[in-house]
């Protein structure tokens, strides 16, 4: 370390002598090394604290914005995933309704078979009343098979549109099917089944209704499978996007921990080196004392 004297002009034109401290090359080099080590140490501690190697665009603009883009798409797909999941529940409600209605129609079929087998008009009249009661329950079931305000099998059914991507360019529209007695064309028993012809009409309607219900159940089940497949795909895609984002910004904590230990050692060595350089200069100064 040495002193150099500089001359400066004061406010009144007088010469003012100023002392300037000059550091030796060894000390200056050690100070710069310590400064760089401190900066690296601060960066390492920030990474360990946040778990990220890219905390802002200042760290790595390309990685930061690419990661943000991946995260934004993942968030959009998560919203769509929830909608797909809710749509599956809507289909399940409709399928459960169809299965229950099918059971009632099967009961109605048993009634018309029994009516055809007897010639007792009183018994036929009683069976006709039971048949009509089942028709009422079919209508109740079709109207009660809604989920979150959507009913795919009521009298005047809703349609269900499901969006699969964030651009709304991939969709599936599921058309509702009227599964009430009106939609199934199951009419009230004619004249209390007094004639076999009236029973035959009811039998034909019941058989047609059962066939229609089976077709509807198959269609709804197929659509439910499609939605479940899309749900699984969307979940996997969101995970892939999250992983991709992490590769761009997440820090390797094992590596950063090793870096922290290395920088701590480097800083200690730098301090020791600076101390030795200072001692060397003091030793030279002692030669003149």
Classify the oligomer.
single chain
What portion of the residues fall into strands of 2 or more residues? 5-15%
Q: Give the helix/strand class.
A: mainly alpha
How many helical elements?
Answer: 6
Unreliable spans are 1-5
Estimated radius of gyration: 42 Å
Mean pLDDT figure = 82
Gross morphology: rod-shaped
CATH fold title of the largest domain: f41 fragment of flagellin, N-terminal domain
Q: What's the architecture of the largest domain, going by CATH?
A: Up-down Bundle
Q: What profile does the largest beta sheet have?
A: 2 strands, antiparallel
What keywords describe this structure?
two-stranded antiparallel ribbon, disordered N terminus, 69% helix, two-stranded antiparallel sheet, 2 domains, 6 helices, 10% strand, f41 fragment of flagellin, N-terminal domain, 289 residues, mainly alpha
Question: How is this structure best described in words?
Answer:
- The chain is about 70% helix and about 10% strand.
- By secondary structure, it is mainly alpha-helical.
- The protein folds into 2 domains: about 55 residues; about 180 residues, f41 fragment of flagellin, N-terminal domain (Up-down Bundle), CATH 1.20.1330.
- The strands form 3 sheets. It has a two-stranded antiparallel sheet. The protein has a two-stranded antiparallel sheet with strand order 3-4.
Could you give the topology of this structure?
Blueprint: E1 2-9, E2 15-22, H1 25-50, H2 61-117, H3 121-144, E3 146-147, E4 150-151, E5 160-163, E6 171-174, H4 181-184, H5 196-249, H6 253-286
Antiparallel strand pairs: 1-2, 3-4, 5-6
Helix pairs in contact: 1-6, 2-3, 2-5
């Amino acid at each position: 370390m040495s002193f150099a004297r500089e001359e400066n002009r004061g406010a009144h034109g007088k010469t003012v002598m100023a002392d300037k401290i000059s550091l030796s090359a060894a000390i200056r080099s050690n100070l710069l090394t310590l400064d760089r080590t401190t900066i690296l140490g601060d960066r390492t501690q920030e990474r360990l604290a946040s778990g990220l190697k890219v905390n802002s665009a200042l760290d790595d603009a390309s990685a930061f914005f690419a990661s943000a883009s991946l995260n934004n798409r993942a968030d959009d797909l998560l919203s769509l995933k929830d909608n797909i999941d809710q749509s599956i529940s809507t289909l399940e409600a409709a399928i459960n309704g169809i299965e229950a209605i099918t059971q009632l129609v099967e009961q109605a079929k048993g009634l018309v078979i029994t009516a055809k087998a007897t010639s007792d008009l009183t018994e036929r009249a009683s069976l006709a009343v039971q048949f009509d009661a089942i028709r009422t329950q079919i209508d109740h079931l079709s109207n009660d098979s809604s989920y979150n305000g959507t009913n795919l099998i009521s009298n005047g059914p809703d349609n269900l549109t499901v969006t699969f991507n964030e651009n709304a360019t991939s969709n599936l529209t599921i058309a509702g099917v009227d599964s009430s007695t009106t939609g199934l064309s199951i009419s009230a028993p004619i004249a209390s089944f007094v004639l076999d012809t009236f029973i035959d009409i009811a039998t034909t309607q019941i058989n047609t209704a059962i066939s229609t219900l089976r077709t509807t159940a198959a269609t709804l089940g197929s659509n439910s499978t499609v939605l479940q497949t899309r749900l699984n795909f969307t979940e996997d895609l969101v995970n892939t996007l999250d992983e991709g984002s992490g590769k761009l910004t997440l820090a390797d904590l094992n590596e950063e921990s090793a870096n922290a230990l290395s920088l701590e050692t480097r800083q200690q060595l730098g301090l020791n080196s600076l101390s030795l350089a200072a001692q060397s200069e003091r030793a030279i100064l002692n030669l003149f004392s």
